[in-house]
Amino acid sequence: MPAQAAAATKSGWWYRPKTATPTAESPQPLPGGNPVLPTVPAGPPTVPADHLHVEGTPAGATSIAAFTYSLNAGESLPVLTLKTAAGSNVPPTSIILACRAAVEWAAPAAPPGAWEEKPLVDCSSSVQAQINDTGDTLVFPLQPLVSGRTLDVVVVPGRVAELPAEANGSTFALTFPKPTAESLTTTTAAPVEEFSPATDFSHDFDFEPAAPSTGETSFESPSFTPTFDGSIVTTPAPVVSPALEPQDQAPSVPRAFSPAVSAEDVGDAAKKLGLVLIALGVIAAYMASAERPATEMGLGRFRRVRPAAEAALDGPTSEGGIGRLRRPRAGAAPRL
Fold first, then answer.
1. What are phi and psi of 307, to 5 degrees?
2. Please, which residues have CB within 8 angstroms of residue 276's CB and are 6 or more apart in sequence?
């Protein structure tokens, strides 16, 4: 069922001409006095104090805005509706994107904020505004941007990469009131009613026969165009992207690459492992035979005591093996 979410917890906007970093042309400190602050250009005069502003030019974004909602338990499918204010110029072809804020951000104390202080933007799951024909209403279905119960949104100009700068949708000026609880609608799950046969099956149901089929099927879709020969022509959606510099966007994480392993490589590895195991077995057998008394023979449960007469034929005891494997032994060295 439709519901209203909690009010936005914070909001703000940032303007490119405003900077917090003094430039080379900034006035230098007066001798023995306080430094002279650089002159900061004011924001557009059409932006009231309780409004936000998003603007773009063919060269890219001029201003962006952000706001945060805290959803109540059970709320989902948030839909934001914005009404443009006086001074706005939003053609229906404008590309306006809602993205996630990639970092924590603070609302400017005196908007607009400095461009360097704007939040980093994550547009990997952006939502494009649905604009009506008159350009005075924008609708954003924001479910892809929900993280837990937080909705942290940055509205930025976008553009179509395949189009020239003058017609790529990045040129517009949008001023709108700060979002409130009335700006965002959500859906809450309906309570589950207990099953009761006495009440659930005591209703009268009226069934109307379905209209006879005419054998014809009609549909409307902006992405598919039927042709006279019965085929379907698919119109691909344009590729849109934020009209921001790379340093203003959260970096993407490259996909980990796992090289393919062939069956031949697996076979070679198995052969090498087999040879290593055989070598280890030979060494273990040699060490076991070198360590036991000359009067014993055999391995494991087959080990038995040699007769004294047989052991006497081995001759004097000598040392066998190499390095740290050298051990006293009697008779000839065991055969490998």
1. -65, 150
2. none
Tens digit of pLDDT for each residue in 178-220? 999 999 999 886 655 555 555 454 445 454 555 554 444 333 3
CATH 2.60.120 domain extents, the chain:
2-18+38-188
Count CB-CB contacts under 10 A for residue 146.
Answer: 19
At 128-184, the pLDDT tens digits run: 999 999 999 999 999 999 999 999 999 999 999 889 998 999 999 999 999 999 999
Residues in the chain: 336
- Cis bond upstream, residue 112 (ω within 30): yes
Strands (E), the chain: 2-4, 8-15, 51-57, 60-70, 75-83, 96-101, 113-114, 121-128, 130-131, 137-141, 150-160, 172-177, 184-188, 224-226, 232-234, 240-242, 296-297, 304-305, 317-320, 327-330
φ and ψ at residue 94, rounded to 5 degrees: -65, 145
Three-state secondary-structure class, residue 320: strand
CATH number of 2-18+38-188: 2.60.120
**CB within 8 A of 114, min separation 6: which ones?**
14, 18, 19, 20, 21, 108
